[in-house]
Design a protein that fits this description.
The structure holds two protein chains of two kinds.
Chain A lengths: L7 E2 L3 H20 L2 H17 L3 E2 L2 H34 L9 H18 L4 H11 L5 H8 L3 H27 L2
Antiparallel strand pairs in A: 1-2
Helix pairs in contact in A: 1-2, 1-3, 3-4, 5-6, 5-7, 6-7
Chain B lengths: L1 H25 L6 H11 L2 H21 L4 H8 L2 H8 L11 H9 L7 H4 L9 E2 L6 E4 L5 E4 L4 E6 L3 E14 L6 E5 L4 E4 L3 E6 L5 E7 L1 E5 L18 E4 L3 E4 L4 E3 L14 E8 H9 L5 E4 L7 E7 L3 H11 L2 E7 L2 E6 L1
Classes of the chains: A mainly alpha, B alpha+beta.
């Protein structure tokens, strides 16, 4: 039955999993040199294909896609680890480090990763302006001085940054709802 | 379904752009009364609200970090945006895979008519009496006049020695005036209304039009003198126009239009009911939408179905369930605030 189909449909998740999981796991393992992370990411990749099914014309097409997705996931993981590491290091210098619950720390890191992810998609000055305003609470006139642009330009940067991120959120929400 | 979605996307881009511009205006601190007013008007549109939710959701994520106890620690961890970019430089990021958790947070986010992030900015801007979307309120004034506020309505009350004046800021009110030596007047965006009788309802539309329905007595429409300069006033209402009991009119800057007779069923909202008398589903949903936050749409195939009965407006979910039982329709709740109605 499956063989008769010309296309690869990820909704046949059992078949798809059998054909590609161990290959994908190896790929992650090579990139990350860590069995546990590799297993996690391979698992996540399949979860995504369950929630958002895809069609491919062949198994090699499917693998091209998977390796592309894998690359992005590795970058995200590395950046996440970087943020996590830096956060714990900075936290260690604070006095009351242990008073915070693991859940609280996890949430903050999660929030940081999301914010980082969004800012990374913006042009440098735009991201900087948004950062200064929304994370450091600076006024436009101070940001203007710092970036050596006009106050009006800062406002423009802010709108530009927000538009890009809102579009991203809208797009993601829609994909989420089409599940 | 596909085409409807892509049309929506187009509309949304423009609205998202507007929403982002509002955000950029607010992000620098205080805004003036005019800006508040303009924003509120803009936000009265359902589609604009939808766009604003995304903007609000994004700004919320930043606010969460800014307000966290370890704000500074967190910022250090993130490094500057430049550093972040550096660490990604060699990576191809063609796919944006926002973590699923972000979406869940977003979906569970508490939606209010005004984005919560902005709620604080509006704290200082309060009307005497106001209702939220879906809320109905009854007020007893000092002179024993009674006012019911329909959904998403606001009024200011100015009583002095000579005049009882109600400022209708937005929405719809039903008034039962009490006997008093002072005149009773309602100020709207296009005209001043003076009660010559006892019972009437006034609805202020977003597009500056005003609907007046008189159930008992009469109401005179006239322009306040200081407003005459910038309103082109045709002869018809240059001085005064009397609306009698049982009449319903739409007042605009240009003219006064008489509509179908005023029917007390149209004020069944006062009892918390939405009354449908053989109206189309599309029309019904439009009316129900006034009492509900978020996006509510009907697919064209079923828009012309007829509906009849009275339905609770304080529980629009229940109303939707009721109509889906009696009509060949299916109510899809995509998100708490996003509902589409489709053929079964």
């Amino acid at each position: 039955m499956e063989a008769a189909l010309a296309t690869v449909d990820t909704r046949n998740i059992n078949t798809f999993y059998q054909n590609h999981h161990s290959w994908l796991y190896q790929l992650f393992n090579r990139k990350l040199s860590n069995h546990a992370d590799a297993a996690d990411l391979a698992h996540d990749a399949f979860i995504r294909l369950i929630t958002k099914p895809k069609f491919f014309d062949s198994n090699s097409g499917a693998r091209a896609y998977l390796s592309h997705v894998a690359r992005g996931m590795c970058t995200d993981l590395w950046r996440r680890q970087q943020i996590e590491h830096a956060f714990y290091e900075a936290l260690a210098e604070c006095k009351h480090e242990d008073e915070q619950s693991p859940e609280y720390k996890h949430n903050i890191i999660q929030a940081l990763v999301q914010v980082d992810n969004m800012l990374a998609k913006l042009p440098e000055k735009v991201a900087r302006a948004f950062w200064l305003s929304q994370l450091e609470g600076k006024r436009y006139k101070d940001i203007a001085l710092e970036l050596e642009v006009s106050e009006r330009m800062v406002k423009k940067y802010m709108a530009q940054a927000m538009l890009k991120m809102a579009i991203l959120a809208a797009r993601n929400a829609e994909e989420y709802t089409k599940r | 379904m596909m085409t409807a979605t892509s049309v929506n996307n187009k509309v949304d881009h423009q609205r998202l752009q507007q929403a982002a511009q509002w955000f950029a205006l607010f992000a620098d601190g205080e805004i003036n009364n005019q800006e508040q007013h303009d924003f509120k008007l803009w936000l009265q549109s359902k589609n604009n609200q939808q766009a604003w939710h995304f903007v609000d959701g994004v700004s919320q994520q930043f606010a969460n970090i800014r307000h966290s106890e370890h704000h500074n620690v967190a910022l250090n961890a993130l490094g500057s945006p430049e550093q972040a970019r550096q660490s990604r430089r060699n990576s191809l990021k063609l796919l944006s895979l926002l973590p699923l958790s972000a979406l869940v947070t977003w979906a569970g986010y508490q939606h209010t008519p005004f984005g919560s992030a902005l709620q604080a900015s509006f704290a200082g801007y309060v009307n005497d009496y106001a209702t939220d979307i879906g809320q109905i309120d009854h007020i007893n004034l000092a002179d024993n006049s009674q006012i019911s506020l329909n959904t998403a309505s606001a009024i200011n009350v100015h009583y002095d020695n000579k005049l009882r004046l109600i400022d209708l800021v937005r929405g719809e009110i039903l008034i039962d005036t009490a006997k008093d030596r002072r005149d009773f007047e309602v100020n709207t965006s296009v005209a001043r209304l003076r009660a010559l009788g006892t019972r009437f309802s006034v609805r202020q539309f977003n597009d500056n039009k005003v609907q007046l329905s008189v159930f008992d007595g009469r109401v005179a429409i006239y322009r306040a003198k200081n407003e005459q300069e910038h309103i082109p006033t045709p002869d018809l209402i240059s001085t005064q126009y009397i609306v009698a009991a049982g009449e319903k009119v739409i007042i605009s800057n240009e003219n006064i239009q008489t509509l179908a007779p005023a029917n007390t069923k149209q004020i069944s909202w006062q009892q918390g009911l939405l009354f449908a008398e053989e109206i189309t589903l599309a029309k019904f949903i439009e009316q129900l939408g006034r009492y509900r936050t978020g996006y509510l749409s009907v697919s064209p195939e079923i828009a012309q179905l007829r509906i009849m009965g009275s339905f609770p407006i304080n529980d629009t979910d229940k109303t939707l369930a009721m109509i889906s039982n009696s009509l060949p329709i299916q109510v899809n709740k995509i998100l708490p605030w996003w509902v589409t109605i489709e053929p079964k």
